[in-house]
Design brief:
Layout lengths: L2 H31 L7 H19 L9 H17 L1 H9 L4 H23 L16 E2 L9 H5 L1 E2 L1 H19 L1 H11 L1 H6 L4 H25 L13 H11 L4 H23 L8 H19 L19
Antiparallel strand pairs: 1-2
Length: about 325
């Protein structure tokens, strides 16, 4: 076995599988930094995957392969629908001051049921969408992609992966170097003080939750338009909850969230390598499939009580709301 090639494949697959987690975790970061707990990342990813796959399926005849216009249209449609799908959570949590966890769980159930129901209607009773003929292809970065081993590991990836890492940097800059980021963090830490200086707490929280829905939907669409090429009930398979764990493990910081998502992505990359190299004779495949979820439980068990969430997270703001 060529260990350098194996390592290169492991890094490459880690980036591929962590991309959706980065998008979703960044979405949760915006919401929770504003003081709104978002348990609905799973549901928002499901809606994003469903929308991305369905829209791409219907527009791909107008943009036949090798054109990549169709998946981009599906991807942007998922962003819009994800933002809209986040509105019920914002209304329930911010306007009606409902329990944010209950609201998020309800949205998860709604997304899971609604997406499968609509899939069966659109595709004549089938439990999944038709396999897409046009999805995102990997980009080979000139010169850098030709570097032995390292080129394949880091410079031959899906465009969504490059976008995810760019958004990590953009999110850091927005949160810590712009007035918008300062206001967002203020309403998540001390909404009454923010209100006192004229910041519209409700508007900031609504904006953050809508951004959260859009980013989480990008994560779901990434899965459907890269690794699976379709949508079914198990396309997301709990990755929204893993993204939530990455958010906590990353301590609500963009850089930390990225590294946490990469950590969880390794578990899925290992699963892929075990199957490729035929190692299932030594390690039961069931154990490999359980690995991402086992890591999630272990990580959360280790960090609970050691991380400091935004002070106002999960607490509706009442007095002095504008």
């Amino acid at each position: 076995m060529d260990w350098l090639l194996t390592g290169s494949n492991l890094i490459h697959d880690t980036i591929v599988f962590s991309t959706a987690l980065i998008f979703a975790a960044l979405g949760g970061l915006y919401s929770e930094r504003s003081g709104v707990v978002n348990i609905a990342l799973e549901g928002m990813m499901i809606i994003g995957a469903f929308t991305g796959a369905v829209v791409t399926f219907f527009v791909q005849p107008f943009f036949p392969s090798p054109s990549t216009v169709a998946p981009w249209i599906g991807f942007f449609a998922a962003i819009v629908v994800g933002a809209i799908f986040a509105l019920p959570h914002a209304v329930a949590s911010i306007t009606f001051k409902a329990d944010q966890v209950v609201s998020g769980v309800a949205l998860n159930f709604l997304a899971a049921g609604l997406s499968v129901y609509l899939t069966k209607i659109i595709f004549n009773g089938a439990g999944q969408t038709t396999t897409l003929s046009t999805v995102f292809s990997k980009w080979h970065i000139p010169l850098l992609g030709d570097i032995p081993y390292l080129g394949h590991a880091l410079f031959e990836g899906y465009p969504t992966s490059y976008l995810a890492f760019a958004l990590v940097a953009i999110t850091w800059y927005v949160l810590f170097r712009t007035p918008f980021g300062l206001r967002l963090r203020a309403v998540g830490e001390h909404p009454r003080a923010a209100d006192t200086v004229g910041i519209n707490v409700k508007r900031m929280r609504y904006t953050a939750v809508i951004i959260s829905g859009a980013l989480a939907a990008m994560g779901g669409a990434t899965i459907a338009l890269t690794t699976t090429s379709n949508f079914s009930h198990n396309t997301v398979s709990g990755q929204g909850f893993i993204a939530l764990a990455a958010l906590i493990f990353g301590k609500w910081n963009p850089g930390g969230v990225m590294w946490a998502a990469l950590f969880f992505g390794i578990a899925q990359a290992i699963k892929s390598l075990v199957q490729i190299y035929g190692l299932t004779a030594y390690v039961p495949i069931e154990v490999i499939y359980m690995l991402p979820y086992i890591l999630t439980i272990l990580v959360l068990a280790g960090v609970v009580g050691r991380t400091n969430a935004p002070a106002a997270a999960g607490k509706p703001y009442e007095t002095g709301s504008r």
